[in-house]
Amino acid sequence: MEILKCVDAGMPGGEITAVVGPSGAGKSTLLRAINRLIEPSSGEVYLDGVPTSGLDPLQVRRRVGMVFQIPVLFGGSVEEAVLYGARLSGKDADPGRLLEMVGLDVSLAGRDPQALSVGQQQRVTMARALALEPEALLLDEPTSALDQAARRRIEELVRDLNTRLGLTMVFVSHDLAQVERAADRVVAYWRRKGAWGRGIGTISSPVRESGRGDSSRGGSSMEGLQTVGSALLTLGLVTVAVALSFYERLGLEKDIGVAVVRSFVQLAAIGYVIDFIFGLDSLEVVVLLLAGMVLFAAWTSARRARDVPRAFLVAAVAVGVAAVATLGLLLTLRIVPATARYLIPLGGMVIGNSMNAASLTMTRIRDDVAEQRPKVEAALALGATSRQAVAPILRTALQSAPIPLIDATKTTGIIFLPGAMVGMIIAGADPLEAVRLQIIVLYMLLGSVSIAAILVGTLSYRSFFTPRNQLQTSPPEH
């Protein structure tokens, strides 16, 4: 029987090409021919315009890596499994860096690879292939043996490796929704007239326009409708809240309604914005979005802290510095990659919590200075500087700002599970991976809130005093 007859397909460098078609059409055979695990009876495979039949098969396989449907690992540890191919070719490779590249913790290096989950083993095989520094990577149904959550993580890894390394990738899949999420182009097989397996043709066509097929889109339109329907059903709970407010005459019906509508519109809008930015794959656009978030946070904080002089400027500096310092440290230590998928949600958490800390600190200083004015002036009369006179007020304000986050951190895992961790677990992630990410988030927020509160305290108290260490007789002009 002949298969792959009359196949003529191009797979552009730097892109992800999906190979789809019915079972038995020869999709895996195509990958094996590209990798020279088999030799075609006729025809030719070209690599960068050069026929591979004239190249050393070992060199071809080192230039074009392959990941199989069922992971096969060698060695007694994950590190040995990752370095297996590199050692055969005499290459030096850093197993820790490779594990991080495929989203695995470096601590797994000493583990028995057979003790890993199938999804983790598949990531190890991808790290093993990357150790050879290939020009292209072939993936033969790499997600077929995985559950839905693990499948999505592999899809995201494929997109991430393609984006970060510019790696040409070819993967076989039966899942058209997966192809839509992960591929730039598609090579499709269909049966022509005649015996099965003969005269199978191909067409190559773009799947993605301006990055719109990114895995961040998360599936088909039907799945999207089901998600929206589920969200609308939860409005029943809101109806209960409105009914209780009306029954108890709390007067919150309007506020609840406004909150529901605004949250829906705002979340939908930011969802489309983030989806668009993911498609652009531009770090500059991510920075602009985060800067806009900082300015809006400063405006919101200034509205809360009315009568605090230069509140907008103080909040903008404090929140901005906290965001830059926190995210900069995460990037410098290579805890997270410099991609929109990480920087936008983490930046949002940092900016939101820093904004709350700035608001709490400014309003507490404003209220305490007004309430304790005789005490402050008594200290000034004794020769204290404005900083010394307001020191107890500053201390109280700085202690109050991070208390909600500190209490939440203390009770995490006992009284409640944080949102990021809950979301990952519901999505099917490994609970230990969810815990690791949540720990990073909690510690990140503690640092950013402390930075914002200290900066706000340092910058805002001076506005309540004249250059001569006197209390302002009335709130100065904004």
Please outline what is shown here.
By secondary structure, the chain is of the alpha/beta class. 57% of the residues lie in helices and 7% in strands.
Strand order of the largest sheet: 4-5-6-1-7-8
Structure classification: alpha/beta
| Low-confidence parts | 193-203, 208-226
Distance between the termini: 84 Å
CATH level-four homologous superfamily name of the largest domain = P-loop containing nucleotide triphosphate hydrolases
- The number of distinct β-strands equals 8
* pLDDT averaged over residues: 81
CATH class of the largest domain, anyone? Alpha Beta
Helix content: 55-70%
Beta-strand proportion: 5-15%
The radius of gyration computed from the alpha-carbon positions, rounded to a whole number of angstroms, is 29 Å
User: Biggest sheet, open or closed, and with what strands and sense?
Assistant: 6 strands, mixed
CATH architecture of the largest domain: 3-Layer(aba) Sandwich
Return the string of H and E elements. Answer: EHEEHEHHHEHEHEEHHHHHHHHHHH
CATH topology of the largest domain: Rossmann fold
**Number of discrete helical segments:** 18
Task: Detail the topology: elements first, then pairings.
Layout: E1 16-20, H1 27-34, E2 46-47, E3 50-51, H2 57-63, E4 64-67, H3 78-88, H4 95-101, H5 118-130, E5 136-140, H6 148-165, E6 168-172, H7 176-182, E7 185-190, E8 201-206, H8 221-233, H9 235-247, H10 253-280, H11 283-304, H12 311-332, H13 340-371, H14 373-381, H15 386-400, H16 403-411, H17 419-426, H18 431-460
